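Per-residue structure
===
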Amino acid sequence: MFTGIIEEVGIVEKIEAIKGGQELHISCSFAAETHVDESIAVNGVCLTVTAQNSETFKVQCVNETLRKTSLGSFEKGSKVNLERSLTLDKAIEGHIVQGHVDITGEIKKISQEDADILIDIEYPEEFDDYVVDRGSIALDGISLTIARTGENYFTVAIIPYTWEYTNLIDKKVGDLVNLEFDVFGKYIIKYLRKRDERS
């Protein structure tokens, strides 16, 4: 479980093919503090540390994860948002994020409005019920609030600090981003759909 508050931007130092997927070597300042079996969100995807040293940690991605997220597009040198899992003494400053990506969205527009950077994200129509004005969403692991919605797209407003201290600063139109919709909203929608089926 995570909060969507990015701890650091790491670098993909190496990508190795393994049976059924890939292994990523990621460098960051807290690599020495990690341990095997620890959960770390990488661009919003919950992955398990399989090895580590003073400079890097390794995580493995199965092919299903590579297909359903943007992790399959990583290259050596890719910058990734990192967050270690929530502990009982850590404040929930974003929102509850599971690290279970629902779908990828595509950046359709990046613009500026006063101090904020506005990003329009297009997503598949079947997920429309999960997108609400002022609702929470995790975008590449970043806890954000939906500023406004349109037909199969939503807009998030990024403050300068978040823009500078996450990998969003390197994003461009056409890039894919990992989306995780609010877990509470997903449970409520499922309950309502089941109720309607029984009616």
About this structure: The first strand starts at residue 8 and ends at 18. The radius of gyration is 17 Å.
